[in-house]
């Protein structure tokens, strides 16, 4: 039995497996620039974050109807359940869909139709986190928050993702303030490819409660001290870091050093269809490669619930 865990860093669009992509392409009359699933999988060799994002946004062309988003989320939840996931906080990228003419309501209604049944079907509680694309403008992020207002009962928080370098958190101060005023929780990707200074900025300017990745905090000892002191959770994604060449090999991953430093780290899958594994596969990979002991794995699983947006009573039930 896989250890019960929460997944806190998962882009639902990053769970689009080649087989489902081709099925949706056929259903929606979309022609993909790949002959078949093997050729598509063969294109999953990334040199950095941007080279991945180009393919990731391109493949989203197959997602057109609410039913497509429901099918996408159902497929993820089924796989996640098999790997011990009891709670999932799921990112989605509305601007990547609205820019293609798919209304935000279609995306949210489609995902919600799956998530509403996930507890009963898969034993997984869920939350939705709406991400702003940081390589789009601050105005576009504000317009996205505005467009999401009729659906705020389905959305727990906001996040910030896409190309990091050159798009510091402070660019999104206003939309995070507005999101906070609406009662939304706040997270942001920071310190994946971008510098440790972006992690500080996400905390100080955006007021995030949790940092996605946060890997590069290890370059700044004072920042590590602060993250430990303030118990700020970091949602690490080890296989993603290797595939996007943030680190050279999994053996170089600082996860173990981060745990030893007292950081509240969690292990997650990011975009599992592209990076070679779901969250349980990430756990297995770090256990084998970094020689983690059962107590480390228990700590990672415990951290995943502690760092979640579950209320205390829900957290106890989920564990
Ligand atoms: N969007 C999907 N995956 C991402 C990642 N790893 N970093 C930034 N944006 C993303
Ligand atoms: Zn991510």
Task: Write a short abstract of this structure.
The protein has 319 residues and is α/β, with parallel strands linked by helices. The protein has one domain: Metal-dependent hydrolases (TIM Barrel, Alpha-Beta Barrel).
Q: Looking at CATH, which topology would you report?
A: TIM Barrel
CATH class: Alpha Beta
Distance between the termini: 14 Å
* Side-by-side strand order of the widest sheet: 1-2-3-4-5-6-7-8
Percent of residues in beta strands?
Answer: 5-15%
Q: State the fourth-level CATH superfamily.
A: Metal-dependent hydrolases
Give the cofactors and ligands: adenine, zinc ion
Radius of gyration: 18 Å
Overall pLDDT confidence: 97
Structural domain tally = 1
The chain-level structural class is: alpha/beta
Compressed to H and E, one letter per element, the order equals EHHHHEHHHEHEHEHEHEHHEHHHH
Helix content: 40-55%
What's the CATH architecture name?
Alpha-Beta Barrel
Largest sheet: 8 strands, parallel
**Number of distinct beta strands:** 8
- As residue ranges, the low-confidence spans are none
Shape: globular
Structure annotation, total helices: 17
């Amino acid at each position: 039995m896989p250890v019960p865990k929460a997944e806190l860093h998962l882009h639902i669009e990053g769970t689009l497996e080649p087989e489902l992509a081709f099925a949706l392409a056929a259903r929606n009359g979309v022609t993909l620039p790949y002959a078949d699933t093997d050729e598509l999988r063969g294109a999953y060799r990334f040199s950095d974050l941007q080279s991945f994002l180009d393919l990731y946004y391109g493949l989203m062309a197959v997602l057109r109807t609410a039913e497509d988003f429901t099918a996408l989320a159902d497929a993820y939840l089924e796989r996640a359940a098999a790997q011990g996931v009891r709670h999932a906080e799921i990112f989605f990228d509305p601007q990547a869909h609205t820019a293609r003419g798919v209304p935000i309501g279609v995306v949210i209604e489609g995902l919600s139709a799956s998530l509403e049944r996930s507890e009963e079907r898969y034993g997984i509680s869920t939350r939705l986190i709406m991400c702003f694309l940081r390589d789009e403008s601050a105005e576009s992020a504000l317009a996205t928050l505005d467009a999401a207002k009729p659906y705020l009962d389905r959305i727990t928080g906001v996040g910030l993702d896409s190309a990091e370098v050159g798009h510091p958190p402070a660019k999104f101060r206003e939309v995070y303030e507005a999101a906070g005023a609406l009662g939304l929780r706040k997270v942001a990707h920071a310190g994946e490819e971008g510098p440790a200074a972006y992690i500080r900025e996400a905390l100080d300017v955006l007021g995030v409660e949790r940092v996605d990745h946060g890997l590069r905090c290890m370059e700044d000892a004072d920042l590590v001290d602060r993250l430990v002191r303030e118990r700020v959770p970091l949602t690490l994604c080890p296989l993603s870091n290797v595939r996007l060449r943030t680190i050279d090999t999994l053996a170089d991953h600082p996860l173990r050093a981060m745990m030893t430093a007292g950081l509240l780290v969690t292990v997650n899958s990011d975009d599992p269809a592209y990076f070679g594994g779901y969250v349980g596969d990430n756990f297995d990979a770090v256990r084998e490669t970094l020689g983690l002991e059962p107590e480390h794995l228990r700590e990672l699983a415990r951290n995943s619930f502690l760092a979640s947006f579950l209320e205390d009573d829900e957290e106890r039930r989920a564990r």
